[in-house]
Amino acid sequence: MTKTPDNISKKKFMEEFRRYQKGSVTRRHFLNVTGLGAASAVLGSAVPGLRPSPAFAAGEIGDRVILATWPNYHDPANFDAFTEATGAHVQVNVFGSNEEMLAKLQAGGSGWDVYVPTNYTITTYVSEDLIEPLDTARLPNYDPSAFDPRYAEAGSVDGTLYAVPKNWGTTGYAVNTSHTDGKAMTSWKDFFDMTMDSFSGRTMVHDYQLTTIGNALKYFGYSFNSVAENELADAEKLLIDAKPHLFAISSDYQPSMRNGDAWMTMCWTGDGKQLNTDMPEIAYVLGVEGGELWSDYYAIPKGAPHMDAAYALINFLLDPEVNAKEVLAHGYPSADAHTNKLLPEDLLNDPILYPAADLLNALEFGAAVTLTDPNRAELMARFKSA
Amino acid sequence: MTRRTRTWLLLMPAGTWFLVMLLLPLTVVLVFSFGERAPAGGVVPAFTFEQYANLPARWTAFKNTLTLAPVGTLAALLIAYPLAYFLAVKVDPKWKTILLVLVIVPFWTSILIRSYAWIFLLGGRGLPALLDWIGIEGVRLINTPFAVLVGIIYGYLPLMVFPIFVSLDRLDKRLLEAASDLGATRWNTFRQITLPLSIPGIATGCMLVFILLMGEFLIPALLGGGKVFFVGNALVDLFLQSRNWAYGSAVAVTLVIVMLITVTIYMRLINRLGASREDVSIM
Amino acid sequence: MRMYATCVYLFLYIPIGVIALFSFNAGRHASQLQGFSTKWYGKALGNPFVMDALQTSLLVAFTSALLASLFGTMAALALQGVRGPVRTVFDMLIYVAVMIPGIVIGIATLIGLVTLFDQLNPMLAALWPEGAQAPRLSMGLGSLIAAHTMFLMALVIIIVRARLAGMDRALTEASSDLYATPFGTFRQVTLPMIFPAVLAGFLLSFTFSFDDFIIAFFVAGSETTLPIYVFSSIRRGVTPEINAIGTMVLGVSLILLVAAQVLLRRGERKPK
After folding, report:
1. Which of the residues A332, B110, B176, B224 has the least number of beta carbons within 10 Å of its own beta carbon?
2. DSSP class of residue A92?
3. Residue A204: left if φ>0, alpha if ψ -120 to 50, beta else—which one?
């Protein structure tokens, strides 16, 4: 709001309007210069439910936008609505680990417009110059004061905003209780012990070093983020012992859990919620030893080919109405107070989304060092090729 | 235009292409394989054998590849040969082309989509459910080496059928008639005429399939559940997950060397089997 | 024998049947049938990314198959008369190009070209006139076509050479004995004889390029070919849209093949 001119003479307004009509300025330029955009933004935030839907006319932002994100993380209907509102189609590319996203960006020419990095990776993206600073003027739906800082602070590095919060969540495991013979599963110790026992051939772990190694570290009570060599060696031994008993190493576990091939998997909050909703016998467990607490962000990679569309998409997805639909579809909690106001009470009290304090307090955010630590990367690769 | 100039002009485009798109990249890989991993990924120039010293960490990947590639090739050959024979010798010429084309057609759908169909067929609701129904319980197929083998055979069968068909098709049918007129048994005819004459086709087919299998990555990734790991998967992992270009280059160089050795040995064997030099030197 | 062939054809076509079957699924999931619908075909056809990817794939496959057949045939013809070190070098190159796994070609091309471009781009920028935007080399359509052409060229050389080897030398010799120019001999004797091989090389190249995922995965930059699109969709959890795409590609190629067959038949029936 501060960036728009306060007042503008009638004459200037008419001049700009004519230029706009003649098509020599874009609609956005017109709205910005005249302050109409700001006015509608102010109006919108003052009147609940009147927040501006994307301030773009159909076709203005191009006909496409490419989003790199995680599996089962969106409501496809929202993309359809975005296409309807802006004329831009959304192509969704799915990744199973932050390492994979980083590698793709480092190799150059990813072609992405928006991607979804996790909290601990953003400093690396900044130091590698792979991420675009965000212009909040182009994200009228972004209201920093509405976000729980715990899940929003990693988006800024040295005072510059690079990423805005998407969702937060935990990494636990989902287990099909119809196969546990009544045994209560509560810890990562249970997870790995069960895998090497009656769940042999039925367990999945992520194809993702942070969680797979991290949770193996938790088995021994070490820090989820450890890079200490002796602790990593213990984790490696556990993982390699468990490997013959695994069903698969993959971050896309829902299909196998749903069709009954897999009985237990490392699992993120929302996937746990999705599975539990459709198949109540699948429970979501947070290890008592701890594990990962994370927050995902929307960000724009350096040199994104459709910059306008990227901003439009992020802004659209930040709209509380849209975001609420997303949460209802994917079951990941949002840190946005506006969004939470629109969510049903029972979802806000759901034990999967909002774990009990003692479980939550045991969790750790991922640490930036894990992303670049060569030993963790090589350990994961050794485990997979073992 | 002299004959010499003509030859050079004709060779020019291909030569340049090989230089820029083959020799240059391979040289870069070779140079990188002596480098070191940069902290955030990528490569730091150096001259060290560290990457090569670290190779045993991928032993299982090499072992899997060197087992499943020959086994897959052999299995594809055993399945393809009778079909190629049937198409070349037995089938009514009217149907020959269409039946041959039908072997190639699956090749026109992405291998990805075809492998995906196998994820379903071998998964819990596919074949195992069927086996369960007829009383064979607890069979697990998906994410096993067997699943990868099925995917391999399925993916590369057409590549095996085609060259064998071509070599059998060129075979003069009168030879077979003459043999049977002279009282040779069918087995003897096959062993003494058909088989030797089809060796170039077999050699080509096996070579094609074997080469593709040595670098295979998709089929194990899709049907092996990330557990049946080929060198190809290790390479993808090194470049697209752990971003260790130096080590990845060393693994790539090693793979190429292993292939050079195995393929050269293979060719020697084939040559000894008596195929004419010209036919096999197509590779 | 016939039984056996039937079994193999079943093996080849059951998965394709499954793909086609699920393309008519009314539900979102590709593992459970929930009624009949053709909506996924509409979705696929209305999806600009699918259409773009298809276009890219066709363009890449056609261009690289064309370049490969042209340069490959040229090289094969030239190599016929070449002995000595040049022959040895080319034989080695062809051998290496065909033998190196696609994944190594993909990775090597990626890091090779990225390294090359890092050297060339500053030079280009320095050479370019002041004020004008210097072109920046990057991975994309060009690198993809170049990589495919390299590999396919080797394939074409092999195929055409095999045909040349099987060709009766006496014919070309007779032709030149009868005072035909080299080009005349080529046009009237060699070309008709190797043409089937060139055509086969082209078709094989087209198919290889169209179906290639591994090389494209590494060298396509931000371009999306159909296999790349399919790969990322599979990871997203397949919807029957992918099945619809697969079925359509298959359907179109079948129609083309049948059409070609009919045309050939008709050509044969003409009195000579």
Report:
1. B176
2. E
3. beta
Tell me, yes or no, whether C23 lies in a domain: no
Domain residue ranges in chain B: 58-282
ipTM confidence score: 0.86
Instruction: Give the B:C interface size as CB pairs under 8 Å.
Output: 226
Touching subunits of A (3+ CB pairs, under 8 Å) are B, C
Distance (Å, whole) CA A154 – CA A50 = 29
Judge whether C10 lies within some domain. Answer: no
Q: Does C190 fall in a domain?
A: yes
Domain that holds residue C60: 48-269
Q: How far apart are CA A366 and CA A290, in angstroms?
A: 12
Report the neighbours of B using a cutoff of 3 or more CB pairs below 8 angstroms. Answer: A, C
**pTM for this model (two decimals):** 0.85
> CATH homologous superfamily for B58-282?
MetI-like (1.10.3720.10)
Instruction: Convert the pLDDT of each residue in B257-269 to its tens digit.
Output: 999 898 888 888 8
Q: How far is A11 from chain C (nearest CA, A)?
A: 36
* Closest chain B CA to residue A248: B225
pLDDT digits (tens, 9 = 90+) for B141-192: 999 999 999 999 999 998 899 889 988 888 777 888 888 888 888 888 888 8
Distance CA A22, CA B184 (A): 91
Question: What residue of B is the nearest CA neighbor of A96?
Answer: B241
Report yes or no on C4 lying in a domain.
no
**A282-285 and A163-176 beta bridge pairing:** antiparallel
CATH number at residue C190: 1.10.3720.10
Asked if B143 lies within 8 A of A248 by C-beta distance, the reply is: yes
Count other Cβ atoms within 10 Å, centred on residue A70: 25
Chain segment A292-340, per-residue pLDDT in tens = 999 999 999 998 989 999 999 999 999 999 999 999 999 999 999 999 9
Q: Which of B25, B101, B235 has the CB atom closest to C112's CB atom?
A: B25
Closest in B86, B87, B105 to C254, CB measured = B105
Closest CA to A217 of A272, A266, A290, A286: A290
Binding-face residues of C in 139-158 toward B, CB within 8 A: 146-147, 149-150, 153, 157-158
- Residue C145 neighbours by CB under 8 Å, 6+ apart: C60, C63, C64, C67
Partner B contacted by C113 (CB < 8 A)? yes
